[in-house]
Design goal:
heterodimer, A: 100 residues, mainly alpha, Helix Hairpins, 77% helix, B: mainly alpha, Four Helix Bundle (Hemerythrin (Met), subunit A)
C-alpha cells in the first residue's frame, strides 16, 4: 500500500507543472495539454483517497473526470481550429479581441 | 523497500520529468509525445494504487484518443502558426517562482497532515475484482450520472463538429 501523502505530493507536483504550463506557454495547444495534466492530477487524488478509504466512489468519479477531460479536449481543439481559420494564429498573446 | 512503493516512485518520477518536458519543449509535437509519457506513467500509478479499470480507461482514452486528436490538430494548424514573439519574461519568471513556493508549502502541509485513513464500507472487495466492482457500482448506484456523461459526450461531439466545420 502506497502512503497517501506521497501520492498527494506527486499529484500536487503534477498540478503545479500543469498550472505553470497554462500560465507561461503561449501556444494554445500546449495550454490544452497542460489542462489535461491538471485533470490527471485531480484524478490521482481521487484514486489515492479511494485506496486510503477503501471506498470505490473515488474510482467512479475518476471515470467521470476522464469523460469530462475527453469532452473538453474535443471542444477545445475544435475551438483552436476555428481560431486558426479565422485569425491565422494560435498564439494566445495575439488573440486579444476581447481584451480592453 | 516495498516493490509497489518502488514502482510508484519510479513511475511518479517519470511522470514528473515528462510533465516538465511537456511545458519546456518549443516544438508542440515533442510536447505531445512527452504527454504520452505522462499519461502512461499515470496509468501505471493507477495500477500500483489498485485502480486497474481506470488504468485501462486512461490508456484507451488519453493515450489512444486524446493524444491522436492533439497530433491531428498540430498537423492541421501547422508549425508556422505557433511561433510568436516571446513576451512577459519577467511575469513568467515570477510566476514560476511563486508556483514552486506554493508547491513546497503544500508538500510540507501534506507531510504534516500524515496518514489518517479510515476504512469505509466496501464489502465486496475480497470477492470481486476491481473491474467487476467498478462496473457494478457504475451500473447500479451511478446509472444516472453515467447516462448524463454519455449525453455530455454527445453534446461535445456535436459541438466540436459544428465549431470545426468549414462554413457556417
Amino acid at each position: 500500500m502506497i502512503p497517501t501523502s506521497e501520492v498527494l505530493i506527486f499529484s500536487m507536483a503534477l498540478l503545479c507543472i500543469g498550472v505553470l504550463g497554462v500560465l507561461t506557454r503561449r501556444n494554445a495547444i500546449v495550454i490544452l495539454m497542460s489542462i489535461e495534466m491538471i485533470l490527471n492530477a485531480a484524478n490521482i487524488n481521487f484514486i489515492a483517497f479511494s485506496q486510503t478509504l477503501n471506498n470505490l466512489v473515488g474510482q467512479i468519479f475518476g471515470v467521470f473526470v476522464i469523460v469530462v477531460a475527453a469532452a473538453e479536449a474535443a471542444v477545445g481543439l475544435a475551438i483552436v481550429i476555428a481560431l486558426y481559420r479565422n485569425r491565422g494564429t494560435i498564439n494566445v498573446d495575439e488573440i486579444n479581441l476581447m481584451k480592453w | 523497500m516495498d516493490f509497489t512503493l518502488l514502482m510508484f516512485r519510479v513511475l511518479a518520477s517519470a511522470a514528473l520529468v515528462c510533465g516538465i518536458l511537456v511545458i519546456l519543449c518549443r516544438n508542440a509535437v515533442h510536447s505531445a509525445l512527452f504527454l504520452v509519457g505522462v499519461f502512461i506513467s499515470v496509468a501505471g500509478i493507477y495500477v500500483v494504487v489498485g485502480a486497474e479499470f481506470l488504468a485501462v480507461v486512461q490508456v484507451l482514452v488519453y493515450a489512444g484518443g486524446i493524444l491522436v486528436l492533439f497530433l491531428f490538430v498540430i498537423m492541421l494548424v501547422g508549425k508556422d502558426a505557433m511561433v510568436g514573439k516571446r513576451r512577459m519574461r519577467l511575469l513568467a519568471t515570477v510566476g514560476t517562482i511563486l508556483i514552486i513556493l506554493f508547491g513546497l508549502l503544500m508538500a510540507q502541509q501534506l507531510n504534516v497532515a500524515g496518514e489518517g485513513g479510515t476504512t469505509g464500507p466496501d464489502a465486496d472487495s475480497t470477492r470481486l475484482g476491481n473491474i467487476e466492482r467498478v462496473g457494478l457500482a457504475l451500473f447500479q448506484d451511478y446509472i444516472l450520472p453515467f447516462e448524463v456523461a454519455s449525453v455530455l459526450l454527445l453534446v461535445a461531439m456535436v459541438g466540436a463538429i459544428v465549431l470545426a466545420r468549414e462554413a457556417y
